[in-house]
Amino acid sequence: MHKIIIDCDTGTDDAIALVAALNSPDIDLRAITTVSGNVDLCYTAPNSLNLARMLGFPVKVAKGAPQPILRDLHKIRLMDADEAGGLPTHGQTGMGDVVLPECGEPFYEKNAVETIWEEAQACGGELEIVAVGPLTNIAHALMVYPRLKEGLIKKISFMGGAAYGGNTTAVAEFNILCDPEAARIVLRSGIPLVMVGLDVTEKAAVPDEDCEIIRWMGTKDAVLVADILDFMRMRRDEFGGEDTLMHDALALAAAVLPGVVSGHDYYVDVECAGEYTFGHTYVQKDHRLTNSAPNCWVAEEVDMKCFMDWLKGCLEQSKNR
């Protein structure tokens, strides 16, 4: 059983990852920590809490960083909107056109950084973090509690970056671009890392027939996922947005499902200074060109049948509740 915290900026594909995690028999979801990214924290935090409570899960939901360490998140979102034809990729509130009922419950009493520390201690070195938004909360936790780097976190899997190209600028992926300073702190932490970037997530589009299968399952959980997928398939297409890409759910699957992605160990760093290149993940594939040892396992290929079987299997579990 994987003891996991999901750190997220809950928009559309983050929500699908959360539904999968809540239903996975292989995951003990210890907490959800929230961060600004796709949309502001005033949306990402309630989205996470309302989703969990709507589906009947009492998991801790903690509020985290409202802004990156140094960057202007509003300007970065405008760059992302330009890529999507002028409209937010995830809609105004992050959930596309899906409206979650307000649960009326409070957030966890501790903030995201305190919650990560609390769970790291409680799990005795077995805690895994799956980060599917900007890495701001994780970086703050490492700065406030440096003992986290001394074996208290088993692994950090993150959706972000790319060996080649980007989706917000020519060279940068959105999550890393939002807070490259935070990403650099995480990459230099010495904690075992798994990077699930655009090189592999852009190959992880849900086929139309699987969208229909998910809806036919008929549970509240599956219908929510189907509604989100419909927004991704139909509404995004209207303004040239991306397809039903499972960026975040694939990062979760990579953390718990052997063989779903393949890749290699590389040295990875983040550009923080360049005017045009900040947010670029530097992935050194030729070890002869650097004196630095590999610090990150980088996913490069995905077994889509394996992934879709896993995702549908998680949703099937909701029939047993």
From TrEMBL:
Q: Name one GO biological process term.
A: purine nucleoside catabolic process
Limits of the Inosine/uridine-preferring nucleoside hydrolase domain:
4-308
Sorted alphabetically, which InterPro entries does this protein's record hold? I/U_nuclsd_hydro_CS, Inosine/uridine_hydrolase_dom, IUNH, Ribo_hydro-like
GO terms under cellular component: cytosol
User: What SUPFAM superfamilies does the database record attribute to this sequence?
Assistant: Nucleoside hydrolase
What molecular function does GO assign, one term? Answer: uridine nucleosidase activity
Q: Alphabetically list the UniProt keywords.
A: Glycosidase, Hydrolase
Q: Which protein, by its recorded name, is this?
A: Nucleoside hydrolase
Which species is the source of this protein? Bittarella massiliensis
